[in-house]
Amino acid sequence: FSPQHLDDDTVSGSNWITENNVQHSLSQTAKTTRKPYCGYTEQTLSKREQAEQESLLAAIQWPKPPDSKIPFAQSTDPTHSDFVIVKPSRFFKVGDQLEVLVRMKDFQGKPKQYGGDYLQARIHSPGLKAGAAGRIVDCHNGLYKVFFTLLWPGEVKVSVSLVHPSEAIQVLLRLREERPDRVYFKSSFKSGRYSETTECNVCLPAGLPVCNFTDLYTGEPWFCYKPRKLSCASRINHAKGGYLKGLLTQEESLFFQSDVNIKRPILSSGPDSVIVKPKAFT
């Protein structure tokens, strides 16, 4: 895969640029391989840092489908899915909890048997310009419970959306592990009238000198290819360079259709709003 949108004067894994903007192939300067430059991975963590790392990894752990290759027809379909308000006719007042049950189905209309979908849920009253997010609980069986705290009186409407199906989440996880360089960045270096721009990322393919900009306080790794004639200390700015394309298979791309299964509303099979009374004071 080759990067897209790199500036002509950007030093990447394939070119180095001279002050006259003449490109020299890498074979003229240094040899490179696909081995990433990730020296920070060799750092030894203290017991406290190890515990913190394990805690963070556990917190972001995402449920996985039972099979890594789920056909598109068996993936989550927001059109077939629905939600219901639990006890919609109940007398609600400000401060009460509202519970909503979301039922996910696939494109064949069959109930999903596992969780992992990325949902967003909110209550809102457009007339009051008021809104609040809900707390979503994944039941790991195709059902999701959403809990809202009713914060204002009047008619309160419930909205639920599918941001990404669980099958798409697994593709994103794979890309995160296999292609951490799919989004790349660049930095400019300048001294007097001479300037160069180089590619930057958490890891870079080995073979060229790099500047280590790892944060000394947090330990967050960051590297840029070293400019040909300038020092690492001459860096003046940082920006997004672009992203790599063509990383999805044809089947995987079906999980990322903006008009089908990305940020699509899930409709209610019953009432989608409740009336909330002001809280009584004694």
Automatic annotation (TrEMBL):
<dbReference type="InterPro" id="IPR026845">
    <property type="entry name" value="NXPH/NXPE"/>
</dbReference>
<dbReference type="InterPro" id="IPR014756">
    <property type="entry name" value="Ig_E-set"/>
</dbReference>
<dbReference type="Pfam" id="PF06312">
    <property type="entry name" value="Neurexophilin"/>
</dbReference>
<protein>
    <submittedName>
        <fullName>NXPE3 protein</fullName>
    </submittedName>
</protein>
<dbReference type="InterPro" id="IPR013783">
    <property type="entry name" value="Ig-like_fold"/>
</dbReference>
